[in-house]
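Person: I keep going back and forth on a fold encoding question. Show me how you would write down a chain together with its backbone fold. Please set it down just below, with no commentary around it:
Helper:
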Amino acid sequence: RRVRDHAPQLPTLSLNYPKFIKTIPQTPKLPKHQKKMSEIESKKRDSADAEVPAAKKARPEHEILGENYWQLDQKGLRFAKFYTFRGREMVDIREYYTKPDSAKLLPGKKGISLSKEQFEAFVAVKDDIAKLFG
């Protein structure tokens, strides 16, 4: 005799799920970089579908930065600035940018901050560097 033959029979449960639960499609999980690309592409499509305005808004002039700024180029986006940071006098030579909807100049990544000693060392070799430019 087998033991299984004498085991009590458990009632079987009938699970009748609604049909729509079985038909829900499973969306594959995309890696983060693919999600970002699909978001960018959808934004491009949305902006392409949007109406083009008749006339572009005039870009406002740059906001005045202050008294210790000196413009270094003709485009007006590179400045030298004198400031004090934690009690140390510094000279910052930096490229600025503006956001499309604002006239405010914001500091960019491209630039360097020099301490007083570093700036004096640069000024000492300025003429030698200028000779190389011809």
